[in-house]
Input
Amino acid sequence: MTAPLEVLVVGAGPTGLALAVQLGSYGTTFRVVDSSLDRARESRALAIQPRTLEALAGFGVADELVTRGNPAMQLRMHLPQRVVQMPLFDIGLTDTAYPFLLFLSQAETESVLAEYLAAQDVVVERGTELVRLEREGAAVICRLRRGDGAEEIVEARYAVGCDGAHSTVRTQAGIGFEGYAYPQTFLLADLEVDGLERGAVHTYMTGSGMLFFFPLGSPATWRMLAMRPPGVPDAEVRLGLLQKITDEYISDRLVLRDPVWMTDFRLHNRGAALPQSRLRSTGGTPIRSGPCFLAGDAAHIHSPAGAQGMNTGIQDALNLGWKLALVCRGRAPEGLLETYEIERAPVGRSVLRFTDRAFTIGTSRNPLIRLARTRLAPRLAPLALRAAGPRGRVFRTVSELGIHYRRSPASTAGSRPPREGPRAGDRLPDFPRGLQARSSGPGWHLLLSGPSALWPDERFASVLRGRDDLISVHRLGGESPWPDAAQGLVRPDGYLGYVARGAHLEGLRAYIERWLPVQQC
Output
């Protein structure tokens, strides 16, 4: 048996790689294994939401992702008699440095994260399969098998399943995976398309279903997504079939050519589940069993509606990573790990509901729904979205900037919460611009707004004693997200753990002592 690890990460897709990035930033001892011999070369997931870019910015990879990607801002809805132009994001995103949906293939996203890890001397152990996982006391004993058949026993304090829909970690931990498969078959291709305006998302709404073209850029200019028409038998996906479907769905003359990748697939809506006798306060969506955690597709899979899947997985990982790291270092109590399920399980359930509803509306053959999809929605949606309030709420939901943890035990408001501005549990906005960059990266960040005379160094000596390496202090003056003198403690994942108005430190002291107790010698 090799030397014990703190964390074994199983799965090296975007979720597992993001978790490794964060664990490595804290000096955690971990390994990343994946049964696949190589990373994804196909595009699969194709879009990165603003919140995901914010969450990755502190590690210096967001700019590289933006450089490689295509920030699309417009949607073209092609109707029988006209084309409706709609903005993807144009309101409600003034407090982020990334006010756009970034189209970038999963292969490129994985490449950027893998290159970052390689620069930190982190080796992703590909061709290494988790065969068995057993709990032994407070640890997990894992049997790994390499491609040459050699086996190894690894002891880890925690194991995280980032290993997808067929997760071995989930199965071995005794967590079910409940839900259903949709009856439709979908066709996917990365290719070139002549006759299509670049720089926008194109959707064709028909009685048979919907046809999408997304501006991918690499490995091809376009990603095509279509539902296999009824009566067309399952067979190998060929360019001729894709061209035939395109010609039947739309009146525009588009020429498909030079496919890089073509496939068909079925979609599922499933989430982690426990037997009725073991359901928890999270509402029956368990993503933890003792020292075993689930993240990304291992915890929830759903349709690609709204481009939520990969983004939700990466944010799962970045919520969990710093908590594991601090607990392993003895800098946070074990109870901090309980907040992972409390915070992220509701997000997973919400995504399952949202994508299911959107998918059903987009694919149903019910005559009333088809009428609403092809005739009513295209005409009413632009009118409804002209109102700034509804449009802003829609954009913030899809962009994932609206995710919050206000009900988490790790989110506490002081006795005098600010009258305006972000609350405890909210994401820290990038307002004033550059605030997120100042308070990103490993560790916690204490933001102090108001006159500098309120915040002399000596006032914090006792509150921060023994935690100087974990908490950085930033005096914002009047350039603050709060209009009054206030104090906000930003967690390592960019969410506010504590917020209070005024200069009294009793609430801040209590919060820090609960979640960041001083190490005992």
In short: The first strand starts at residue 5 and ends at 10. The CA atoms of residues 142 and 403 lie 34 Å apart.
